Amino acid sequence: MGFDISADEQELVDAVTQISTDILAPRAAAADANERVADETLKTIAEVGVMGLNLPEALGGPGVGSVAMSQMVTAITAACASTASIVTAQFLATDSILLGGTDAQRQDWLPRAAAGEIIGSFGLTEPGAGSNPAEMSTKATRVEGGWHLKGTKCFITNAGFADFIVVYAKTDVDAGHKGISAFIVDTADASAGLDFNPPEKTMGLRGSPVYEFVIDAIVPEDALLGVEGEGFTTAMRVLDRGRIEVAAMSLGISKAALDAAVDWAGQRRISGKPLDRLQGIAFKLADMYTKYRSAWLLTMDAAEQRDAEVDFTRSSATAKLAASEAAAFIADEALQIHGGYGFTRDFPLERYVRDARIYRIYEGSSEIQRTIIARSLTA
Ligand SMILES: Cc1cc2nc3c(=O)[nH]c(=O)nc-3n(C[C@H](O)[C@H](O)[C@H](O)COP(=O)(O)OP(=O)(O)OC[C@H]3O[C@@H](n4cnc5c(N)ncnc54)[C@H](O)[C@@H]3O)c2cc1C
User: Where in this chain does the record put each Acyl-CoA oxidase/dehydrogenase middle domain (predicted)?
Assistant: First the structure.
């Protein structure tokens, strides 16, 4: 349990941390207020390889392990959680192709995605199927020369400006989750059959828009991702990986909030004494640190298991559950330590609280993580 990373990985972690501090952090409040991370910001991080961190060198990525990647996702989120959400949605889309696609599909899509030339999106959730995606109603029917995709997806990060969306749909409605397949939808080619609603008005991650869309489009034969009927298995494998990234994002908010709270508690004076001399405040800091450190260890443990290519379903669920719950607690306590100042938009604390709320919901809510963990213990 060393959580070691190579010298090359460390160099990339340092570069990404530097860009996060210098470029992402000063732009985070504007991305939140404008409800969109600027394209130029995404271009800048793409230049250091961030959009393809999850991909091997052969497909244009840096070929880093999950331990190093988690540390980079944490650094990006500590600076700007909206940017991290756009980036990790790209990972969900490209992981779908990496894990479920054919060699030709990997070669066709992934190097361009790794370079940030194209943006991807992961279309699993529907109005009637969130926590249980097997109940989806989007259908894909074979037609002359391809597939007819028909249905509605909701809360899909990046979808409205994505170049491709991996859409999960039922190719056999009688086969339960085994009847689910995935399709790579080229949004330019399918544009006449894609109808996007305006982005949702979300509580947090406002710089990372999420969309509902209706799809009623014919896609070519080779849009089918890999093998028919394998879509659900691919989605679950993608989410096992994605949950480590949600844990890493949770750590980013936790770290930023904890650092802000420690700073503030050292400077703010009450009755002539710094706040951190008050036991009630010092205990809060200790509890925040303990939750942060526990979540960090669980996240690195899950990442290390993923790198070791052993089954990491339980450890990624455990890391996501612990880290997302910790982030909510730490962001809230950090705001509390800032008193009224924390409630103003002059400080990032209120944004941390809003942004951290999603980590307990997406890629499987805390309740679903508990179900996964309990099932793995009792099965
Ligand atoms: C900002 C944002 C970005 C998102 N990005 C994406 C994306 O890019 N791609 C994508 O496909 N989806 C995305 N989602 C969707 C997200 O993954 C779902 O919202 C999430 O899975 C929960 O589904 P739901 O909203 O339908 O809630 P529901 O499934 O209706 O759940 C409602 C409540 O019931 C609880 N619950 C459900 N089942 C159980 C159970 N068996 N036991 C106990 N409690 C249960 C849940 O925990 C929750 O508290 C995003 C959502 C948001 C808000």
Answer: 121-216
